[in-house]
Amino acid sequence: MIDYKLLEALAVVVEEGGFERAARRLGLSQSAVSQRIKLLEARVGQAVLVRETPPQPTAPGLRLLRHIQQVRLLEADLGSEVPGLAEEAPQRLRIALNADSLASWWPAAVGPWLVEQGLLLDLVVEDQDVVLRRMRAGEVAACLCASGQPLAGARVRSLGAMRYRAVASPDFCARWLTGRPIAQALVRAPAIVFGPDDRLQHRYLEQLGVTAPFDYHLCPSAEGFQQMALSGIGWGLLPDIQSAAALASGALVDLAPGHWVDVPLFWHHWRNGGVALQALTRHLEGVAGQWLVRD
Protein backbone atom coordinates (compact mmCIF):
# COMPACT_ATOMS: atom_id res chain seq x y z
CA MET A 1 0.00 0.00 0.00
CA ILE A 2 1.12 3.54 -0.73
CA ASP A 3 1.53 5.83 2.27
CA TYR A 4 0.01 9.06 1.00
CA LYS A 5 1.64 11.14 3.73
CA LEU A 6 4.96 10.27 2.10
CA LEU A 7 3.68 11.16 -1.36
CA GLU A 8 2.28 14.44 -0.07
CA ALA A 9 5.69 15.30 1.38
CA LEU A 10 7.28 14.65 -2.02
CA ALA A 11 4.72 16.84 -3.80
CA VAL A 12 5.08 19.73 -1.36
CA VAL A 13 8.89 19.68 -1.49
CA VAL A 14 8.76 19.99 -5.29
CA GLU A 15 5.96 22.59 -5.27
CA GLU A 16 7.66 24.74 -2.64
CA GLY A 17 11.12 24.34 -4.13
CA GLY A 18 12.83 23.11 -0.96
CA PHE A 19 12.58 21.22 2.33
CA GLU A 20 12.41 24.28 4.58
CA ARG A 21 9.38 25.84 2.88
CA ALA A 22 7.75 22.41 2.57
CA ALA A 23 8.16 21.92 6.31
CA ARG A 24 6.41 25.22 7.05
CA ARG A 25 3.51 24.35 4.73
CA LEU A 26 3.08 20.88 6.23
CA GLY A 27 3.50 22.05 9.83
CA LEU A 28 6.44 19.69 10.37
CA SER A 29 10.11 20.03 11.14
CA GLN A 30 12.53 20.03 8.21
CA SER A 31 14.07 16.80 9.48
CA ALA A 32 10.62 15.17 9.60
CA VAL A 33 9.99 16.08 5.95
CA SER A 34 13.44 14.77 5.01
CA GLN A 35 12.70 11.55 6.90
CA ARG A 36 9.44 11.07 4.97
CA ILE A 37 11.28 11.43 1.67
CA LYS A 38 13.92 8.93 2.79
CA LEU A 39 11.20 6.48 3.88
CA LEU A 40 9.44 6.87 0.53
CA GLU A 41 12.71 6.15 -1.28
CA ALA A 42 13.23 3.10 0.89
CA ARG A 43 9.72 1.88 0.03
CA VAL A 44 10.16 2.27 -3.75
CA GLY A 45 13.80 1.21 -3.72
CA GLN A 46 14.91 4.24 -5.77
CA ALA A 47 15.68 7.91 -5.31
CA VAL A 48 12.65 10.14 -5.89
CA LEU A 49 14.47 13.48 -5.64
CA VAL A 50 17.73 14.92 -6.84
CA ARG A 51 19.02 16.96 -3.89
CA GLU A 52 19.83 20.21 -5.67
CA THR A 53 18.40 23.72 -5.44
CA PRO A 54 15.52 23.50 -6.06
CA PRO A 55 15.05 19.73 -5.59
CA GLN A 56 14.15 17.95 -8.82
CA PRO A 57 12.11 14.75 -9.12
CA THR A 58 13.74 11.68 -10.63
CA ALA A 59 11.91 9.55 -13.20
CA PRO A 60 10.22 7.43 -10.45
CA GLY A 61 9.54 10.68 -8.57
CA LEU A 62 7.73 12.09 -11.60
CA ARG A 63 5.43 9.09 -11.76
CA LEU A 64 4.64 9.43 -8.06
CA LEU A 65 3.98 13.17 -8.43
CA ARG A 66 1.53 12.61 -11.27
CA HIS A 67 -0.23 10.02 -9.14
CA ILE A 68 -0.60 12.25 -6.07
CA GLN A 69 -1.89 15.14 -8.22
CA GLN A 70 -4.68 12.94 -9.53
CA VAL A 71 -5.41 11.52 -6.08
CA ARG A 72 -5.86 15.05 -4.71
CA LEU A 73 -8.42 15.85 -7.40
CA LEU A 74 -10.30 12.58 -7.03
CA GLU A 75 -10.44 13.00 -3.24
CA ALA A 76 -12.01 16.43 -3.74
CA ASP A 77 -14.67 14.83 -5.96
CA LEU A 78 -15.32 12.16 -3.35
CA GLY A 79 -15.73 14.82 -0.68
CA SER A 80 -18.45 16.51 -2.73
CA GLU A 81 -20.30 13.20 -3.06
CA VAL A 82 -19.77 12.02 0.53
CA PRO A 83 -20.10 15.13 2.73
CA GLY A 84 -18.56 13.43 5.75
CA LEU A 85 -15.25 13.14 3.89
CA ALA A 86 -15.20 16.71 2.58
CA GLU A 87 -12.36 19.04 3.52
CA GLU A 88 -13.37 22.24 5.30
CA ALA A 89 -11.23 24.37 2.97
CA PRO A 90 -12.38 25.08 -0.62
CA GLN A 91 -10.98 22.85 -3.33
CA ARG A 92 -7.79 24.10 -4.97
CA LEU A 93 -6.56 23.50 -8.52
CA ARG A 94 -2.84 23.87 -9.17
CA ILE A 95 -2.30 25.18 -12.70
CA ALA A 96 0.70 26.42 -14.68
CA LEU A 97 0.26 29.11 -17.34
CA ASN A 98 2.18 31.69 -19.32
CA ALA A 99 2.64 35.19 -17.92
CA ASP A 100 1.06 36.97 -20.90
CA SER A 101 -2.22 35.09 -20.47
CA LEU A 102 -2.27 35.93 -16.77
CA ALA A 103 -1.65 39.61 -17.56
CA SER A 104 -4.39 39.80 -20.19
CA TRP A 105 -7.30 37.45 -20.83
CA TRP A 106 -7.08 34.70 -18.19
CA PRO A 107 -8.54 36.60 -15.18
CA ALA A 108 -11.56 37.80 -17.17
CA ALA A 109 -12.09 34.35 -18.65
CA VAL A 110 -12.07 32.38 -15.38
CA GLY A 111 -12.86 34.95 -12.67
CA PRO A 112 -16.69 34.82 -12.59
CA TRP A 113 -16.63 31.06 -13.11
CA LEU A 114 -14.29 30.52 -10.13
CA VAL A 115 -16.54 32.61 -7.91
CA GLU A 116 -19.58 30.62 -9.01
CA GLN A 117 -17.83 27.29 -8.41
CA GLY A 118 -16.15 28.28 -5.14
CA LEU A 119 -12.73 27.10 -6.34
CA LEU A 120 -9.29 28.41 -5.52
CA LEU A 121 -6.27 28.36 -7.82
CA ASP A 122 -2.58 27.85 -7.15
CA LEU A 123 -0.97 29.43 -10.22
CA VAL A 124 2.55 28.65 -11.40
CA VAL A 125 3.73 31.22 -13.96
CA GLU A 126 6.37 30.47 -16.61
CA ASP A 127 7.21 31.41 -20.19
CA GLN A 128 4.70 29.85 -22.61
CA ASP A 129 7.38 27.65 -24.20
CA VAL A 130 8.40 25.95 -20.94
CA VAL A 131 5.15 25.70 -18.94
CA LEU A 132 4.62 22.09 -20.03
CA ARG A 133 7.66 21.05 -18.00
CA ARG A 134 5.72 21.77 -14.83
CA MET A 135 2.98 19.35 -15.79
CA ARG A 136 5.43 16.75 -17.03
CA ALA A 137 7.11 16.99 -13.63
CA GLY A 138 3.78 16.25 -11.94
CA GLU A 139 3.70 19.62 -10.17
CA VAL A 140 0.36 20.77 -11.58
CA ALA A 141 -2.97 19.27 -12.58
CA ALA A 142 -3.24 21.30 -15.79
CA CYS A 143 -1.31 23.85 -17.80
CA LEU A 144 -1.75 26.44 -20.52
CA CYS A 145 1.17 26.62 -22.91
CA ALA A 146 2.36 26.93 -26.51
CA SER A 147 3.08 23.23 -27.00
CA GLY A 148 0.45 20.86 -28.33
CA GLN A 149 2.58 17.79 -27.60
CA PRO A 150 0.38 15.42 -25.59
CA LEU A 151 1.59 13.88 -22.34
CA ALA A 152 0.92 10.30 -21.31
CA GLY A 153 -2.16 10.21 -19.10
CA ALA A 154 -3.31 13.68 -20.15
CA ARG A 155 -5.58 15.31 -22.71
CA VAL A 156 -4.82 18.41 -24.74
CA ARG A 157 -7.20 20.97 -26.25
CA SER A 158 -6.41 23.86 -28.61
CA LEU A 159 -7.94 27.11 -27.30
CA GLY A 160 -6.71 29.49 -30.01
CA ALA A 161 -3.70 31.79 -30.32
CA MET A 162 -2.40 35.05 -28.94
CA ARG A 163 -1.34 37.47 -31.68
CA TYR A 164 1.83 39.46 -31.01
CA ARG A 165 3.04 42.60 -32.79
CA ALA A 166 6.36 44.44 -32.54
CA VAL A 167 5.78 47.72 -30.71
CA ALA A 168 7.76 50.61 -29.30
CA SER A 169 7.16 54.16 -28.12
CA PRO A 170 7.24 57.06 -30.61
CA ASP A 171 10.36 58.45 -28.90
CA PHE A 172 12.13 55.10 -29.24
CA CYS A 173 11.18 54.96 -32.92
CA ALA A 174 12.57 58.42 -33.55
CA ARG A 175 15.78 57.60 -31.73
CA TRP A 176 16.50 54.13 -33.13
CA LEU A 177 14.33 53.23 -36.10
CA THR A 178 14.67 56.03 -38.65
CA GLY A 179 16.87 56.19 -41.73
CA ARG A 180 17.11 52.47 -42.53
CA PRO A 181 14.79 49.52 -43.36
CA ILE A 182 12.87 48.34 -40.27
CA ALA A 183 14.47 44.87 -40.17
CA GLN A 184 17.98 46.31 -40.12
CA ALA A 185 16.99 48.98 -37.61
CA LEU A 186 15.48 46.47 -35.17
CA VAL A 187 18.68 44.43 -35.05
CA ARG A 188 20.63 47.53 -34.02
CA ALA A 189 18.06 48.71 -31.47
CA PRO A 190 17.74 47.26 -27.94
CA ALA A 191 14.87 44.81 -27.60
CA ILE A 192 12.95 43.59 -24.55
CA VAL A 193 12.87 39.85 -23.92
CA PHE A 194 10.79 38.14 -21.24
CA GLY A 195 13.44 35.59 -20.26
CA PRO A 196 16.20 33.31 -21.53
CA ASP A 197 13.62 30.94 -23.05
CA ASP A 198 11.66 33.70 -24.82
CA ARG A 199 12.22 33.35 -28.59
CA LEU A 200 9.39 35.56 -29.83
CA GLN A 201 11.59 38.46 -30.89
CA HIS A 202 13.93 36.04 -32.67
CA ARG A 203 11.01 34.46 -34.54
CA TYR A 204 9.69 37.87 -35.54
CA LEU A 205 13.03 39.00 -36.95
CA GLU A 206 13.35 35.72 -38.85
CA GLN A 207 10.00 36.55 -40.49
CA LEU A 208 11.60 39.79 -41.65
CA GLY A 209 14.58 37.88 -43.03
CA VAL A 210 17.03 38.69 -40.22
CA THR A 211 18.94 36.10 -38.18
CA ALA A 212 21.67 38.33 -36.74
CA PRO A 213 22.11 38.56 -32.93
CA PHE A 214 20.73 41.62 -31.18
CA ASP A 215 21.02 43.33 -27.81
CA TYR A 216 18.13 43.07 -25.38
CA HIS A 217 16.90 43.79 -21.88
CA LEU A 218 15.57 40.85 -19.83
CA CYS A 219 12.24 41.61 -18.15
CA PRO A 220 10.49 38.60 -16.55
CA SER A 221 7.21 40.47 -15.97
CA ALA A 222 4.38 40.79 -18.47
CA GLU A 223 3.21 44.10 -16.97
CA GLY A 224 6.76 45.38 -16.66
CA PHE A 225 7.45 44.40 -20.27
CA GLN A 226 4.76 46.77 -21.53
CA GLN A 227 5.83 49.53 -19.15
CA MET A 228 9.40 49.29 -20.45
CA ALA A 229 8.14 49.60 -24.02
CA LEU A 230 5.98 52.61 -23.06
CA SER A 231 8.99 54.23 -21.41
CA GLY A 232 11.08 53.99 -24.57
CA ILE A 233 13.57 51.50 -23.13
CA GLY A 234 13.27 48.99 -25.95
CA TRP A 235 11.06 47.36 -28.57
CA GLY A 236 9.32 44.05 -28.09
CA LEU A 237 6.49 41.70 -29.01
CA LEU A 238 3.27 42.36 -27.10
CA PRO A 239 -0.07 40.56 -27.52
CA ASP A 240 -2.85 42.56 -29.16
CA ILE A 241 -5.16 42.04 -26.20
CA GLN A 242 -2.59 43.67 -23.92
CA SER A 243 -1.33 46.49 -26.15
CA ALA A 244 -4.54 47.52 -28.00
CA ALA A 245 -5.29 50.57 -25.83
CA ALA A 246 -1.72 51.89 -26.04
CA LEU A 247 -1.67 51.40 -29.82
CA ALA A 248 -5.02 53.18 -30.21
CA SER A 249 -3.84 56.16 -28.15
CA GLY A 250 -0.50 56.42 -29.94
CA ALA A 251 1.52 55.63 -26.80
CA LEU A 252 2.89 52.62 -28.71
CA VAL A 253 3.52 52.19 -32.43
CA ASP A 254 3.17 49.01 -34.53
CA LEU A 255 6.66 48.79 -36.03
CA ALA A 256 5.79 46.69 -39.08
CA PRO A 257 2.05 46.72 -39.83
CA GLY A 258 0.94 43.50 -41.46
CA HIS A 259 3.56 41.42 -39.62
CA TRP A 260 2.85 39.50 -36.44
CA VAL A 261 3.54 36.23 -34.64
CA ASP A 262 0.65 33.99 -33.56
CA VAL A 263 1.43 31.90 -30.47
CA PRO A 264 -0.96 28.94 -30.14
CA LEU A 265 -2.25 28.11 -26.69
CA PHE A 266 -3.05 24.55 -25.64
CA TRP A 267 -4.80 23.42 -22.48
CA HIS A 268 -3.39 20.20 -21.00
CA HIS A 269 -5.11 18.36 -18.15
CA TRP A 270 -4.90 14.95 -16.54
CA ARG A 271 -7.47 12.43 -17.78
CA ASN A 272 -8.33 11.42 -14.22
CA GLY A 273 -8.36 15.00 -12.99
CA GLY A 274 -11.79 14.98 -11.42
CA VAL A 275 -15.04 16.85 -11.93
CA ALA A 276 -13.75 20.36 -11.19
CA LEU A 277 -10.91 20.11 -13.70
CA GLN A 278 -13.24 18.74 -16.37
CA ALA A 279 -15.66 21.59 -15.73
CA LEU A 280 -12.87 24.18 -16.01
CA THR A 281 -11.80 22.60 -19.30
CA ARG A 282 -15.32 22.86 -20.74
CA HIS A 283 -15.57 26.46 -19.55
CA LEU A 284 -12.28 27.47 -21.19
CA GLU A 285 -13.25 25.81 -24.46
CA GLY A 286 -16.46 27.82 -24.44
CA VAL A 287 -15.08 31.29 -23.63
CA ALA A 288 -11.46 31.46 -24.87
CA GLY A 289 -12.55 32.52 -28.35
CA GLN A 290 -13.61 35.91 -26.93
CA TRP A 291 -9.93 36.79 -26.51
CA LEU A 292 -7.89 34.39 -28.63
CA VAL A 293 -7.51 34.17 -32.41
CA ARG A 294 -9.09 31.09 -33.94
CA ASP A 295 -8.82 29.81 -37.51
Could you explain how this protein is built, in words?
The protein is of the alpha/beta class. It folds into 2 domains: 1-89, Winged helix-like DNA-binding domain superfamily/Winged helix DNA-binding domain (Arc Repressor Mutant, subunit A); 90-295, D-Maltodextrin-Binding Protein, domain 2 (3-Layer(aba) Sandwich). The chain has 13 helices and 11 strands. The strands form 3 sheets. Strands 3, 4, 5, 6, 9, 10 and 11 form a 7-stranded mixed beta sheet that branches. It has a two-stranded antiparallel ribbon with strand order 1-2. A two-stranded parallel ribbon has the order 7-8. Helix 1 (4-16) crosses helix 2 and helix 1 (4-16) packs across helix 3. The longest helix has 23 residues, at 59-81. The protein is elongated and about 70 Å long. This is LysR family transcriptional regulator ArgP. Keywords: DNA-binding, Transcription, Transcription regulation. Residues 2-58 form the HTH lysR-type domain.
Could you write a compact summary of the structure shown?
With about 300 residues, this protein is α/β, with parallel strands linked by helices. The chain is elongated and about 70 Å long.
Spell out the blueprint of helices and strands.
Blueprint: H1 4-16, H2 19-26, H3 30-44, E1 49-50, E2 56-57, H4 59-81, E3 92-98, H5 99-102, H6 106-117, E4 120-126, H7 132-136, E5 142-145, E6 154-168, H8 170-176, H9 182-188, E7 191-193, H10 200-207, E8 216-218, H11 222-230, E9 236-239, H12 240-249, E10 253-254, E11 261-270, H13 275-287
Parallel strand pairs: 3-4, 3-5, 7-8
Antiparallel strand pairs: 1-2, 5-11, 6-9, 6-10, 6-11
Helix pairs in contact: 1-2, 1-3, 1-4, 2-3
